[in-house]
Design goal:
The complex is a heterodimer of chains A (about 600) and B (about 200). Chain A has 4 domains: about 220 residues, Rossmann fold (3-Layer(aba) Sandwich), CATH 3.40.50; about 110 residues, 3-Layer(aba) Sandwich (Rossmann fold), CATH 3.40.50; about 180 residues, Thiamin diphosphate (ThDP)-binding fold, Pyr/PP domains (Rossmann fold), CATH 3.40.50; about 60 residues, Alpha-Beta Plaits. Chain A is built from 21 helices and 22 strands. In chain A, the strands form 5 sheets. A 7-stranded mixed beta sheet of chain A has the order 2-1-3-4-6-5-11, with helices on both faces. A 5-stranded mixed beta sheet of chain A has the order 8-10-9-12-13, with helices on both faces. Chain A has a 5-stranded parallel beta sheet with strand order 14-15-16-18-17, sandwiched between helices. Chain B has about 200 residues and is α/β, with parallel strands linked by helices. Chain B is built from 8 helices and 6 strands, in the order βαβββαβααβαααα. In chain B, strands 2-3-1-4-5-6 form a 6-stranded mixed beta sheet, sandwiched between helices. In chain B, β4, α2 and β5 form a beta-alpha-beta unit. The radius of gyration of chain B is 16 Å and the shape is globular. Classes of the chains: A alpha/beta (about 600), B alpha/beta (about 200). Chains A and B meet through β7, α10, α13 and β20 of A and α1, β2, α2, α3 and α4 of B. β7 of chain A pairs antiparallel with β2 of chain B, so a sheet runs across the interface.
């Protein structure tokens, strides 16, 4: 079972009532599994017994599930690490008022930034907000921690964090199952002034939060997830570790035949102080192995100081481990061989002299975003800054388009566009997807309208959240449970925000789209281009379902003048150089959009057949 | 069986590498062998380089150390070389001979290495098996079965701790009835090819 699937299983074994999310790698499959189950019930006209939604953003997701928990239901909210930044305003005060039904907030961190704009360590949020936190090492533990996490949350009357990392979310391992528990159906909201965080209530709630953490520490002391055990013979060398790092530690210690005492932590906030003190007293040397920030290491040091221990602590401060990127077996073996002064048995083969071409991800053949980018560039080839956003279209940064100049986070394209318009004399064309638009793209559009910023903001409306796996969003007429839903039109929202020039285009009509961008650039003040065309992967899937054929394009080599407009400017990955500089189309990759045929100045590209 | 078996699967997004890794994981569970699989999702999927690991036996997590792979199977030759740091001289390197040209090459920015030199280089790092996966998949009925050809080849190489029948059964359980025959042919084609 995938780590993400195991979390869903754990929630179902605990009888979860409400699950909410905004999709984001590496958390997406948690919500997608809930959605898959809910949809399969909906198809059979049955009730899945839990409520699930892809919320507009992470803050909304946390509020929807939070209110359900306050009403006594069991809830789960999942998001990627940066999603908790979006939800942090809610999170910080939610910790003050607590909850009634169990609430697990899954934060999926991404050390090494496999699919993220940063590698922030969200364990700081546990310390920051005062949230009890669980950290699984394997899919099996992820399931059990989710199941038992609901009980801990209810005992403490507090939401808790389940912190995972990519290597847990996207790892498969064996998981032993328990029976499913029935959800409770309806909650009950009990009115109480305590739920309204006026300053006076907040001042009264803060000490309650600290009291809750004292109780949580007692749970941590007794928790089955925190254990000490020996590898090899009894010794005065200790290792403190948690999460996926534990897996590397265990194998490295066994492979190197070390004698060590392990403190394996699963409940990492609050830490079990007694357990730590006993561990410190039993060791002369302790190695701390944790990815990213020295959170366990610093707390361990503080506790060693409190009991006047002179235990030697190895970790990040001694330079044996890094604060950067995810760990792996090599890195842990290498550090251990230095600390324990044993030979490192790892064989590293010599580097090949052959230069390997890079294979970065790219916009798919037939992607409508490529056509939008091409048209925008044609409207004004030079002197334009392109703020971009989080989604497939970030891939527009690659050659030959190179149309991504500034990116911070979800929704940042339009806000930074306004700032660039204030600060420079350049033209500004920004890009965001439709899911991003609903998530956090609307407030900066209002800012642009209200302050009359001279910007062109583009909404790439492909009717899905494509990058994370085609999840629905408010622009769809169905929801994550497969039920009909009210469709919100991006262009209507934009008009409602006070934008006077709204251009609605089909990017596959490159000529008209270019003209629309020209009008938008000429307009003094903010203009929004809504570029509407569905994701080609969904479009072709639907076509196949309907029994429609997909055209395959080819190049007439006699007409082709090798001007390279198609390959060198448009840059579809289905195009490649054949013999003697000829340009060819890889039929297995062509998705039949026909945009290359439209832009070819010599009319050399034609439909060869339909597949 | 060996205490630990480490397999690296590589290729290009969309070639069924993740599916193949997933099937190996399911087969191990069926054979009652402890297993971990790591996958890549999200940004890496859009036609990019893909790398999965499958570890079986007395293992605690899914990641493989350098030089510790028992087998590297690749649906694309350059991708086998990209992950060659997992090999030692005993590693079985099983690669499809069919290149997929990255767009960095198609736009003329970079070069695809000479294929014969590439194979020579791979054979320096371990025991090389070259499989014409596209030809075998086409003969079986569809190019899309290429990943199943490679699983057949992996089974034929003798690295796996279970019999090839259990693997084939798991493959067939996970696909619709009308494609079963095609996938069986693909698997057996790969199984035979690696022994030649």
């Amino acid at each position: 079972m995938l780590g993400n699937e195991a979390i869903v299983r754990g929630a179902l074994e605990a009888g979860v009532d409400v699950a909410t999310t905004y999709p984001g790698t590496p958390s997406s499959e948690i919500a997608d599994t809930f959605s898959y189950i809910a949809k399969s019930f909906t198809k059979q006209n049955k009730n899945p017994k839990f409520y699930f939604e892809y919320s507009t953003n992470e803050k909304v997701a946390l509020e929807v599930a939070g209110a359900a928990s306050i009403s006594g239901l069991r809830s789960l909210t999942c998001m990627k690490h940066v999603g908790l930044n979006v939800a942090s305003d809610t999170f910080m005060t939610y910790m003050y008022i607590g909850t009634r039904g169990g609430h697990i907030i899954v934060t999926a961190d991404d050390p090494s930034c496999h699919s993220s704009q940063n590698e922030q360590d969200n364990r700081y949020y546990a310390l920051f907000g005062g949230a009890p936190m669980l950290e699984p090492s394997t899919p099996m533990e992820a399931k059990e921690m989710t199941r038992i996490g609901f009980e801990i949350s209810e005992e403490l009357k507090s939401p808790i964090l389940l912190r995972t990392t990519t290597r847990l979310n996207h790892a498969r391992g064996t998981v032993e199952l328990k029976n499913l528990q029935k959800p409770r159906k309806k909650g009950h909201f009990e009115k109480n002034p305590m739920w309204v965080t006026t300053p006076a209530i907040a001042r009264a709630r803060h000490p309650e939060l600290l009291k809750m953490l004292e109780t949580a520490e007692k749970i941590s002391e007794k928790s089955e997830f925190n254990q000490t055990f020996n590898i090899g013979k009894p010794t005065d060398w200790g290792i403190v570790t948690s999460g996926v790092s534990f897996n590397y530690v265990k194998e490295a210690a066994e492979d190197l035949k070390l004698n060590v005492r392990i403190l394996k932590l699963g409940m990492t906030h609050p830490l079990p102080r007694m357990m730590f003190e006993n561990f410190i007293k039993s060791c002369k040397n302790i190695v701390v192995v944790e990815e990213l920030e020295p959170i366990l290491e610093n707390q361990l040091k503080a506790m060693a100081f409190d009991i006047s221990s002179n235990v030697k602590i190895y970790g990040k401060s001694t330079g044996h481990f890094s604060r950067l990127y995810e760990y792996n077996p090599n890195l842990v073996m290498d550090a251990f061989s230095k600390i324990f002064k044993v030979e490192n048995p790892i064989y590293i083969p010599p580097t090949s002299k052959i230069k390997i071409p890079r294979r970065p991800p790219a916009l798919c053949p037939g992607c409508p975003h490529r056509a939008t980018y091409y048209a925008a560039k044609k409207a004004q080839p030079k002197g334009v800054i392109y703020p971009t956003d989080i989604g497939c279209y970030t891939l527009g940064r690659e050659k030959p388009l190179e149309m991504a100049d500034l990116l911070l986070c979800m929704g940042s394209n339009a806000g930074t566009a306004c700032g660039l318009a204030v600060a420079t004399d350049e033209k500004i064309i920004s890009f965001m997807g439709d899911s991003t638009f609903f998530h956090s793209g609307i407030p900066p559009i209002i800012d642009a309208a209200h302050h009359n910023h001279d910007v062109v903001i583009t909404v790439l409306d492909n009717r899905t959240t494509a990058m994370t796996g085609h999840q629905p969003h408010p622009g769809n007429d169905f929801d994550g449970m497969g039920r009909p839903a009210k469709r919100i039109f991006t262009e209507e929202v934009v008009k409602g925000c006070g934008i006077e020039l709204v251009e609605i285009v089909n990017p596959n009509d490159i000529k008209e789209t270019t003209k629309a961008f020209k009008r938008a650039l000429d307009f003094k003040g903010p203009a929004v281009v809504v570029s509407k065309s569905p994701c080609i992967l969904l479009e072709n899937r639907d076509k196949k379902k309907r029994g429609e054929k997909i055209p395959i394009y080819q190049i007439n080599q006699e007409k082709c003048q090798r001007c390279k407009t198609c390959i060198g400017r448009f840059g579809c990955p289905a195009l490649y150089f054949g013999k003697e500089g000829s340009v060819m189309i890889d039929e297995s990759q062509c998705n039949g959009c026909g945009n290359c045929a439209d832009i070819c100045p010599f009319g050399a590209i034609y439909v060869k057949e339909e597949k | 069986m060996k205490e630990k078996i480490n397999i690296i699967l590589t290729g290009v997004g969309g070639q069924g590498v993740i599916t193949a890794a997933n099937i190996l994981g399911k087969t191990a569970v069926k054979a009652k062998i402890n297993v971990f699989v790591s996958e890549v999702h999200g940004m890496a999927q859009r036609g990019g380089s893909v790398n999965c690991t499958v570890r079986m036996g007395d293992v605690s997590g899914p990641l493989v150390a350098s030089g510790d792979a028992d087998a590297i199977i690749s649906t694309e030759p350059v991708e086998a070389l990209r992950y060659i740091h997992y090999s030692n001289k005993k590693t079985k390197i099983i690669t499809s001979i069919n290149p997929v040209i990255p767009f960095t090459v198609s736009t003329g920015e970079e070069k695809y290495p000479d294929i014969d030199k590439l194979f020579k280089e791979l054979s320096f790092y371990g025991k090389l098996y070259k499989i014409d996966a596209i030809k075998i998949a086409k003969e079986a009925g569809a190019i899309i079965t290429k990943n199943i050809v490679m699983l057949g080849a992996l089974a034929g190489s003798g690295v796996l701790p279970f019999k090839e029948d259990i693997l084939l059964d798991t493959i067939l359980e996970n696909i619709p009835a009308k494609y079963k025959e095609m996938n069986k042919k693909a698997f057996l084609g790969g199984f035979k090819a690696v022994k030649e």
